[in-house]
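INFO  loader      accepted 1 record
INFO  loader      residues=272
INFO  predictor   begin
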Amino acid sequence: MLAGVFRARKKDGCLYFRSSITYRSKHISLGSFTDELHAHYAYLEADRLLQNSRITITNAVFSNFLLSHEKVVSLLNFRDNGIYIKTPVYMFRSCFHYYLTPDEIYKFDTDDLFYFSSHKLLRRGGHLYVNDYGMQVTVLSRYGIRNFAVAGKDYKFANQDPYDLRYENIININPFHGVRRCSKNGTVTYDTHIHINGEYQIGNYKTLHEAAIAYNKAADLARQYGAARNFPANFIAELSKKEYEQAYADVKISDKYKKYLKHMAEWQKKMR
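INFO  predictor   done
INFO  writer      dumping tokens
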């Protein structure tokens, strides 16, 4: 057999060829191939990447390699930083880059290195996510940003770079359910909305916490009137239990919304 190539068979008995290389005492799988020659070429590519320091993470032309871009990044990171990571991560002194594609490169804090070393970054419908314990978890949720939050409205990037996902670059404008930040003539207030059979405005509030508590109160009222929705609750960690209870009692809810709930309950009663 050619260097770096091993025969293997699938469950149905079909022959295929596996390629691998050993570097710094670590055995690294390079992938599976239908013929011996391509598996050998993959081995030669990996050897060239590991031995040729002129090929760097900044000048590597991924399209020139038989190996996947993920494998190229992993090999270069192992060569330069001494750590083999299966996901396409390249480490720098104060951050790391995740190569989702050769042209789509995300920057993360080193605090997240362990997580993204074992969780593959994926994209679907414009959202970045990972599979975690059988669930699809959006990457932005790690910053307290809600699912389906709108960039520029609910959160923004301090340096205007949407590929820079370091914590210092993420500004979470509206971290609570049902709350929208409003700005008029330089004055910032917060609108609270809730969705039942349509979207209803609960009120406009001076502080973010008031608006978040108003949403909780509106959700509680909806449940009292028989709304069968699973409303998420806003948790305000900065308030003690006593402070929250007082704020909950003081916050005002739209009379129009209360009338709607009463009308809804009466209609549901007639339909039984």
